């Protein structure tokens, strides 16, 4: 902004010199080309010239002056609109596609290997060229995250970064990016053959560190030693804390769009008044990274507190949050997706770490495994209490589990591209981490259509 203002003042200054210059130049020309009439005294001659010229220039000068003033006002309005209305936002897209003219090498699995570095640089150069050649000035940069094997080639996963005015619709930006890629597949000769049907852009479930480097799913796994470990910045960017004014943290929630959170219905048992709730984001409750009021609470019509059935609710933020490395939405799984038993999933929350303990100020995470409903409904486990809208996760031997205060929070699963999906909502359990009493979660896939009907997401 200051730079622009300087440019504007400079322009004014130049124009002013332009105006005065012809006058002085002409005077000079006169004095050199013509012999000065001897009758006129030295001081009189320029005086007459000056007056004549001033009369001649006056209306034009006035017009130009008005024009300059109009231009300054115009530029000022432009600057204000640019920074207030058209505030540029960075957009991250995760792009995945298949390249068919190269073979997978074992060393691609190690990001420090020469093979991985060389190949990913080649891909990054190619993607940059595609966008730069298309005249796409909003493109910032790209970074390869993962190369994985495929029967006929290599699967590529990369982050694409753009800046777009916040007024642009997300759907339009996505179309535009897709069109640029499709177009270049047709018209450019690229070093790598990208399979068009495999090309996908995603904007949810992405984890990024402060420096915009992706956090691989394996990093969360490695740090878990016994049960729950504290999270690092940006590791679970969809995690929110639902707080009751004056009473603090009550429940967790997951961000599914710029304004909608998914949580558990039982979180609103005490209080359903949106004006009494606040939502915070970031890995600590105090201080929070982002704080928002709540505008609307939608509790599932068929929630039953006795059976815990349909323990799902939506909360709408009073003002939208902007996505960043700290705040990001999680993907919702297609209703048809089925996770096999013993899949690795993660539960996160600010809940207590011992039965009936206090809320934690720093977000914690735990890796648990899905348990089939058949096993979970056994007489010695939950004896038939698990219905179709529920999902069990934990360990039969106990030890690792969600607990009080984690309710409403996310149970997430990374797909093979490292994109995170919300598969469960912390709902209930008998005590915490007891053997044969795993955590019970709301099965999000079963409510996919309900969520769409309420939010349009
Ligand atoms: N209902 C509890 C709450 O209000 C969370 C229950 C989760 N329990 C469990 N063992 N996984 O926070």
Automatic annotation (TrEMBL):
Membrane topology classification: Single-pass type II membrane protein
Residues in SEA domain copies: 89-206
GO molecular function: peptidase activity
Pfam families: SEA, Trypsin
Protein name: Transmembrane protease serine 11F
Residue span(s) of domain Peptidase S1: 224-456
Gene Ontology annotations of biological process type: proteolysis
Predominant cellular place of this UniProt entry's protein: membrane
Protein's cellular compartments: Membrane
Keyword annotations from UniProtKB, A to Z: Disulfide bond, Hydrolase, Membrane, Protease, Serine protease, Signal-anchor, Transmembrane, Transmembrane helix
Sequence intervals crossing the membrane: 62-85
Xref: SMART domains: Tryp_SPc
């Amino acid at each position: 902004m200051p730079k622009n203002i300087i440019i504007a003042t400079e322009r004014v200054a130049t124009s002013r010199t332009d105006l005065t210059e012809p006058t002085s130049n002409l005077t000079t020309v006169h004095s050199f080309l013509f012999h000065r009439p001897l009758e006129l005294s030295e001081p009189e001659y320029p005086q007459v010239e000056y007056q004549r010229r001033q009369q001649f220039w006056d209306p034009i000068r006035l017009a130009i002056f008005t024009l300059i003033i109009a231009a300054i006002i115009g530029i000022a309005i432009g600057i204000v609109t640019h920074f207030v209305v058209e505030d540029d936002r960075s957009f991250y897209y995760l792009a995945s596609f298949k390249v068919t003219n190269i073979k997978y090498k074992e060393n691609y699995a190690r990001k420090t290997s020469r093979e991985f570095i060389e190949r990913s640089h080649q891909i990054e150069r190619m993607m940059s060229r595609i966008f730069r050649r298309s005249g796409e000035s909003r493109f910032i940069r790209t970074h390869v995250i993962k190369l994985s094997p495929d029967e006929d080639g290599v699967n590529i996963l990369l982050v694409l970064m753009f800046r777009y005015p916040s007024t642009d619709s997300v759907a339009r930006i996505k179309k535009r990016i897709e069109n640029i890629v499709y177009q270049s597949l047709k018209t450019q000769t690229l070093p790598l053959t990208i399979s068009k049907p495999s090309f996908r852009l995603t904007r949810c479930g992405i984890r990024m560190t402060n420096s915009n480097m992706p956090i691989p799913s394996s990093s969360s796994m490695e740090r878990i030693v016994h049960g729950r470990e504290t999270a690092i910045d940006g590791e679970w960017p969809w995690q929110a804390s639902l707080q009751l004014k004056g009473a603090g943290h009550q429940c967790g929630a997951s961000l599914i769009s710029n304004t909608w959170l998914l949580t558990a219905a039982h979180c609103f048992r005490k209080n359903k008044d949106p004006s009494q709730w606040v939502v915070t984001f970031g890995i600590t409750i105090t201080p929070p990274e982002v704080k928002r009021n709540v505008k609307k609470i939608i509790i599932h019509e068929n929630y039953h507190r006795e059976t815990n059935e349909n323990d799902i609710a939506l909360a709408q933020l009073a003002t939208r949050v902007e996505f960043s490395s700290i705040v990001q939405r999680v993907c919702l799984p297609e209703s048809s997706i089925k996770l096999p038993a013993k899949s690795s999933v993660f539960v996160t929350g600010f809940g207590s770490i011992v039965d009936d303990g206090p809320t934690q100020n720093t977000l914690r995470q735990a890796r648990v495994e899905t348990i089939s409903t058949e096993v979970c409904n056994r007489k010695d486990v939950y004896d038939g209490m698990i219905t179709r809208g529920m999902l069990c996760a934990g360990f039969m031997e106990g030890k690792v589990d969600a607990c009080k205060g984690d309710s409403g929070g996310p149970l997430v699963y990374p797909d093979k591209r490292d994109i995170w999906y919300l598969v469960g909502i912390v709902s209930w359990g008998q005590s915490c981490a007891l053997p044969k009493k795993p955590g019970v979660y709301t099965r999000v896939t079963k409510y996919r259509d309900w969520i769409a009907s309420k939010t349009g997401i």
